[in-house]
Amino acid sequence: MKAVFNLSSSLSLSPSQSHYRTTAVFTPRRRIASSSTAVGGACSSCRTHLTLFPQHRSSFSPLRCNVRETVPDQEMASTDEQDPRIAKISKAIRVIPDFPKPGILFQDITTLLLDTKAFKDAIDLFVERYRGKNISVVAGIEARGFIFGPPIALAIGAKFVPMRKPKKLPGEVISEEYSLEYGTDKIEMHVGAVEAGERALVIDDLIATGGTLCAAIRLLERVGVEVVECACVIELDGLKGRERLGGKPLFVLVNAVG
User: Fold this and answer.
1) 131 catalytically annotated
2) CA 144/CA 25 separation, integer angstroms
3) pLDDT, position 65
4) Is 109 helix (H, G, I), strand (E, B) or coil?
């Protein structure tokens, strides 16, 4: 297996324009001897930074997200062009083996945050994509979406809306339930944080199974918000979270595939 670093998605540039697809792919020399899969009992959320070795494969049942489709398909375009910033970002992300238990590779973005140049490059890539796209809401998913969301929101002139775990927000909330491998969980936001007709970007650090992103999309759409796109720093391709977003565009910087 190898890690492929990918700048990819399909995005509607404005309410009246057609969709725009672009991909910059960087394939490094480093190999990660693992395959991406869901982890039973390793963490409580569907979204995880865990990657298992082949002998630890799980029989995680596919999740589906019932959201409004905005594009006809999610096939990724490709190009020979490479953005040199992608290599720096990928190199700054540390992969820790056997954490939190043996056989698991943990995608650690804290080292990216320590590298001021790579961290700024990551933010800049998102800002360059979304500036001027009439996005008024950046919705960040707890907890690492709170790291990347606010600087993007400030740079593009949007408000930042935290999407939190249950009982974390002090005011009146609206919530959306989503499935875990065993049981369910919820994501919440404050009532009145967004208004019908606004255009939103949903941001998180990583997409695995896509369960949390699906819940965030449904929650925003319930109150009349148009979700323009989802964005993550890392995508674990083996879990096929992209395929479970109901056709919503997904933009990622680093793509780990098996």
Assistant:
1) no
2) 24
3) 53
4) coil
Catalytic residue among 144, 164, 199, 242: 144
Phi, psi of 195 (to 5 degrees): -125, 150
What predicted TM-score, i.e. pTM, was given to this entire model? 0.72
C-alpha span between 85 and 24 (Å, rounded): 11
Closest CA to 112 of 128, 139, 91, 127: 91
* CA 147/CA 145 separation, integer angstroms: 5
Dihedrals phi, psi of 211, to nearest 5 degrees: -60, -45
Per-residue pLDDT, averaged over 52-76, amounts to 39
Q: Name the token pair of 25.
A: 């792919």
75 is an active site residue: no
Strand partners, 254: 234
Phi, psi of 104 (to 5 degrees): -110, 135
**Residue-wise pLDDT tens digits, 176-186:** 999 876 789 99
Instruction: Kindly name the residue from 47, 164, 181, 235 that is annotated as catalytic.
Output: 181
C-alpha–C-alpha distance, residues 68 and 248, integer Å: 8
Output the CA–CA distances (angstroms, integers) from residue 58 to 13, 41, 42, 62, 243, in the order listed.
38, 11, 11, 12, 18
